[in-house]
Design goal:
The protein has eleven helices and 35 strands. It is an alpha+beta fold. The chain folds into three domains: 251 residues, Glycosidases (TIM Barrel), CATH 3.20.20; 116 residues, Sandwich (Jelly Rolls); 108 residues, Galactose-binding domain-like (Jelly Rolls, Sandwich). The protein is globular. The N terminus is likely disordered.
Length: 640
C-alpha cells in the first residue's frame, strides 16, 4: 500500500485554516439557531383574541394603540424614520392598506419591489417592535384613485366592482394568490408582526351584494390567514358591513355614545375598537385646507382610552399622493372633486415627518399606557430652501407627441381604460389627446362625456375648457379643414361611494358639433411614465426661453446641489396647472386654485450635482421654480 505523503503547513496557513474552520462553525451555529428560533416562533398559539371585553395577546390583556402609515405614500428611505417616530409617540401597532392598483398595474403583472416592497415594510415594523394590522383590501378607499382598485377592471363593460360578479372575483382571486402568500409568513402565529387582518374595507357603506363579504373572508382564510379578522365601518355602515367570524370595529372623528352603545349591543362582551380615528381630514382642489384642533382631537382620544377601548389613528402620518394617484370625492356634491397631491391630513406627524402639537399631546397621553419610558424622539430631518431653478428650455405638447407610441385611430372616441395600450390593459392615469377634423365653427356640446376636464384646441389654439360644469363651447368659424383637439385629464377617480363602476375616464361618449356627433379620431395616450419623461429629456425639440413658449408645454430646469442633500418644498407662483417631475419621479399635480401651494420633494430623490426638473404646464409659466423649507397648504378651515 502506498504511503500517504505528509502535508506540511506553515504557521500562516495553519492560522488561516483555523480561521476558516471557526467561520464555518459560526455559520452552522447561526443557521441552526435560526432554525430553532423559527421553530420556537412557529409554536406561538396565543394570538390576538377578542373573546372578552378586552383583547388578549400572548395570553395577556392587550390594548391596541395603533397608527396608520401607508408605505406607498412615503419614500422607502424614510420608512424607518417614520416608524421610529411612531414608536416614540407610544404607538404599539402599525396599520397599513395595500394598494392593488400599484401592485398589479397590468393584469397578471405584479410589482412588490422598491417602494412597494410590502414584506420589507412588515419586516421593518417587526424589527422595531411594532405589531401590524394589515388592511389588504382589495378596496381600500384611502382617498386613492378608485379606492386602490386597478383601472383595467373597467375594461369590462359589465364590471360590478366589490361584488361577487365573476369578472371581479376572478381578478381578486388571482391578485390574492400573489399578495397573501407574501404576507402569511409574517403573521403572529408564524413569529411575525401581523396580529389582525381586515376583511375588505367599509363595505357597509357600499353593500351591493350580500354574499360579497363572505367571499372576501374565505379568500383570506383559504390562503392561510390565521389571525384575528376584523371589519371596519363608520356608524351608518355597521349594520351592513359585518361578516361572521370577524370583529366589527368603528370609524369616526367626533364621539357619539349612541354609536358605541350600538357596537356594544351587536357584539356584547367583546373588545371595542376605533379602527379609524380621524386625526384630521383630506383636502380638495379649489377648497380650503382642513384642520382639526389638537386639543379637541386629544380630548376625544383620551375619552376613548378611558372607556377601555383600543384605537387606531388615521392618519398618524399621511405622506403624499405622489404621481397621479389621488382620488376624488363625489358624495354630497354635484360633481366629483379631486383630492390634492398632499396627504398631510393634519396628522400628528406632518407630510415631511415633523412633530406637531398633536404628536406631543398624544405622546403624553399614550405614555400613561406604558409601563416603561417611551423611546426618545428621533432627530428631525433637516430641510432647505435651494436657490431658484431657472427654466432654460421649453417644448410644446405638439412636439412631444413624437415620443409617444403611435396614436390609435378610431371612428368614435374611446375611453382611457379601453385604449389598446399597455399590453391591452388600457391607460390608467394622466392625459389623453383626442384629435379630429372639422369644417365649420358652431356649438360644441360635450353631453357631459368629458372625464374629467378637457382643454379644447382648434389648430393648436386653445378655445376653452369643458368639464362637469361647462358642457358647451362656441367654436370660431374658419375656412377649410381644421384640427379640433381635446386634451383630457383624468383628475382622479372617485375613491368612495356607490359610483365606482362609473369611473371610466377620457371621452366616454359622443361629443357633438352643431348637434352632429364627431367622428374619425386620432387618440394619443399621455401617461407621462418615466420612460416618456427620459425620452423627452434627451429629445432635440427643446427651444430656448428666448423663443416664446406655447401652451400646453414642457419646461426644463436644472437644480445644482453642492452641499448635503436635504428635503425641500417646491413652489410655483405664476404657474397655472400641471405636473412636476424631478429626476424622472412624478411629484404630483399642482394648481393655482389651491389650497396647496407647495409640493414635497424628499432628499432621497435628489442627487449631488445636477438634478433634472421638468414641468408639464397647461396654461402659463413664470420661468422659474422656487423652493421653500416649509409646506404651505393654503387658507385653513376647521373640520366640520
Amino acid at each position: 500500500m502506498e504511503r500517504l505523503s505528509c502535508v506540511r503547513l506553515s504557521l500562516k496557513q495553519r492560522y488561516l485554516l483555523l480561521l476558516c474552520l471557526g467561520l464555518c462553525a459560526l455559520i452552522i451555529y447561526h443557521r441552526s439557531s435560526k432554525r430553532s428560533s423559527g421553530a420556537r416562533r412557529m409554536s406561538r398559539t396565543e394570538k390576538l383574541q377578542a373573546n372578552s371585553s378586552q383583547f388578549t395577546l400572548g395570553g395577556k390583556p392587550f390594548r391596541i394603540l395603533g397608527g396608520s402609515i401607508h408605505y406607498f405614500r412615503v419614500p422607502r428611505a424614510y420608512w424607518e424614520d417614520r416608524l421610529l417616530k411612531m414608536k416614540a409617540c407610544g404607538i404599539n401597532t402599525l396599520t397599513t392598506y395595500v394598494p392593488w392598483n400599484l401592485h398589479e398595474p397590468e393584469r397578471g403583472v405584479f410589482n412588490f419591489e422598491d417602494d412597494l416592497d410590502l414584506e420589507a415594510y412588515l419586516e421593518l415594523a417587526d424589527s422595531l417592535g411594532l405589531w401590524v394590522i394589515l388592511r389588504p383590501g382589495p378596496y381600500i378607499c384611502a382617498e386613492w384613485d378608485l379606492g386602490g382598485l386597478p383601472s383595467w377592471l373597467l375594461r369590462d363593460p359589465n364590471m360590478k366592482l366589490r361584488t361577487t360578479y365573476p369578472g371581479f372575483t376572478d381578478a381578486v382571486n388571482k391578485y390574492f394568490d400573489q399578495l397573501i402568500k407574501k404576507v402569511v409568513r409574517h403573521q403572529y402565529s408564524f413569529g411575525g408582526p401581523i396580529i389582525a387582518v381586515q376583511v375588505e374595507n367599509e363595505y357597509g357603506s357600499y353593500a351591493k351584494d350580500t354574499d360579497y363579504m363572505t367571499f372576501m373572508k374565505e379568500a383570506l382564510l383559504s390562503r392561510g390567514v390565521t389571525e384575528q379578522l376584523v371589519t371596519s365601518d363608520n356608524a351608518d355602515g355597521l349594520k351592513m358591513g359585518r361578516v361572521k367570524g370577524a370583529l366589527e370595529t368603528i370609524n369616526f372623528q367626533k364621539l357619539n355614545p349612541k354609536d358605541l352603545k350600538y357596537l356594544d349591543d351587536i357584539q356584547p362582551h367583546r373588545p371595542k375598537m376605533v379602527m379609524e380615528y380621524w386625526t384630521g381630514w383630506f383636502d380638495l382642489w379649489g377648497g380650503l385646507h382642513h384642520v382639526f384642533p389638537a386639543e379637541e382631537m386629544v380630548a376625544v382620544v383620551t375619552e376613548i382610552l378611558k372607556m377601555d377601548m383600543s384605537i387606531n389613528l388615521y392618519m398618524f402620518h399621511g405622506g403624499t399622493n405622489f404621481g397621479f394617484m389621488n382620488g376624488a370625492l363625489a358624495v354630497g356634491i354635484p360633481s366629483p372633486k379631486p383630492m390634492i397631491t398632499s396627504y398631510d391630513y393634519d396628522a400628528p406627524l406632518s407630510e415631511a415627518g415633523d412633530y406637531t402639537t398633536k404628536y406631543r399631546l398624544l405622546r403624553n397621553v399614550f405614555s400613561h399606557y406604558h409601563t416603561q419610558d417611551l423611546p426618545k424622539m428621533p432627530f428631525l430631518v433637516e430641510r432647505k430652501a435651494y436657490q431658484p431653478a431657472v427654466v432654460h428650455q421649453h417644448q410644446s405638447l405638439w412636439d412631444s407627441l413624437h415620443f409617444i407610441d403611435k396614436p390609435f385611430k378610431s371612428e368614435k372616441p374611446i375611453n382611457m381604460e379601453n385604449l389598446p395600450v399597455n399590453n391591452h390593459n388600457g391607460q390608467s392615469y394622466g392625459y389623453t389627446l383626442y384629435e379630429t377634423t372639422i369644417h365649420s365653427g358652431g356649438t360644441l356640446n360635450s353631453n357631459n362625456h368629458i372625464r374629467d376636464r378637457a382643454l379644447v384646441f382648434v389648430d393648436k389654439q386653445c378655445v376653452g375648457v369643458l368639464d362637469y360644469n361647462v358642457l358647451e363651447l362656441t367654436l370660431p368659424d374658419g375656412k377649410g379643414k381644421r384640427t379640433l383637439s381635446f386634451l383630457v385629464e383624468n383628475t382622479g377617480r372617485v375613491n368612495y361611494g356607490t359610483t365606482l363602476d362609473e369611473q371610466r375616464k377620457g371621452i366616454v361618449g359622443d361629443i357633438e358639433l352643431n348637434k352632429q356627433p364627431l367622428r374619425d379620431f386620432l387618440i394619443y395616450s399621455l401617461e407621462m411614465k418615466p420612460a416618456f419623461v427620459n425620452k423627452l429629456k434627451t429629445s432635440g425639440h427643446w427651444l430656448s426661453m428666448h423663443q416664446r413658449p406655447s401652451f400646453p408645454g414642457f419646461f426644463q430646469a436644472k437644480l445644482h446641489i453642492k452641499t448635503q442633500l436635504k428635503d425641500t418644498f417646491i413652489k410655483l407662483p405664476g404657474w397655472g396647472k400641471g405636473v412636476i417631475f424631478v429626476n424622472g419621479k412624478n411629484l404630483g399635480r399642482y394648481s393655482s386654485v389651491g389650497p396647496q401651494q407647495t409640493l414635497y420633494l424628499p432628499a432621497p430623490w435628489l442627487n449631488r450635482g445636477d438634478n433634472h426638473l421638468m414641468v408639464f404646464e397647461e396654461l402659463e409659466s413664470d420661468g422659474k421654480i422656487l423652493f421653500s423649507p416649509s409646506a404651505d397648504y393654503g387658507m385653513s378651515v376647521d373640520v366640520q
